[in-house]
Amino acid sequence: MEARTPAYRRILLKLSGEALGGEAGRVLDIATCRTIAAEIAEAQAMGVQIGIVIGGGNIMRGASVGEIPRVTADSMGMLATVINSLALNEFIKETGCRSRVLTAVGIEGAGEYFTGMQAREYLERGEIVIIAGGTGNPFFTTDTAAALRAAEIGAEVLFKATKVDGIYDSDPMKNPQAVKFSRLSPGDALARKLGIMDATAFSFCMENKIPIIVFKLAEKGNLGRCLRGEQVGSIITAGGA
Fold it and tell me: For the sheet containing 49-54, what is the strand order?
C-alpha cells in the first residue's frame, strides 16, 4: 500500500495494563508485548511523535482493593504502572527505536522525573516517551493521567487502545446487538455513561479540545490506519461539538 502522510504529528497512546497480558491474562505476555512494541515502532517510522501512558491493572488496580486504604492502594497502582512502563520500554528498544521512561513518582533507577518540557524535548529528538506513575497523586485514574499528559506534551489526539473495535452503547462481548458509534461528542459520551474513560478524563479532553480515538490495538495495523486518518474505531470529537 502506498505510504501516506500521517494525520497527526504527535499523539498520546493510552494502553491498559491488561493489554500487556495478552489473551491468556498473564501479568506480562512476552509475545503480546513484542507485538505491541512492533506496532508502536511502525507508527514512529511514519514520522509520528509518540507519548505512551500505561495502566497497572494487570498487576494492581488501586481502586479495586477494598481492604487497603485508597491512598495506599493507589500508590501501589502507580508503582504497577512503572513496572509495566519499564517492561514495554525494553521491548520497544528491541525494535531499534529510542525510548525512555519518565515517571511522576520518584524511583531511583526507574526513569527520570516527568516534566512536560522534558518530555517534549525527547519527542522532538525522535524518542518514544513512556510516562509512568499516573498523575503522581491518589484518586486519579490512568485515563485521567493520559488526558493530562496529552495536554502537557502538546499531543494532537489521545488514542485509547481497547479490547473491542470502538465505542458501543453496551458491552459487545455480552450483547451481540450492541450498536457501535463512529463519532460522539464528549458531552454525549458523558451523558450516555459509556464507561470508556472516567468523567474527569472526558472533561479534561473536552476543555483542552483533545479528540479521543478508541480502537482495537490487537488487530495488526490498526494503529497505523488510525494515524493515516482512516475510519478505525470510534472518535470522540474535540470540544463540546
Answer: 112-113, 99-103, 128-132, 49-54, 10-15, 157-162, 212-216, 234-236, 183-184
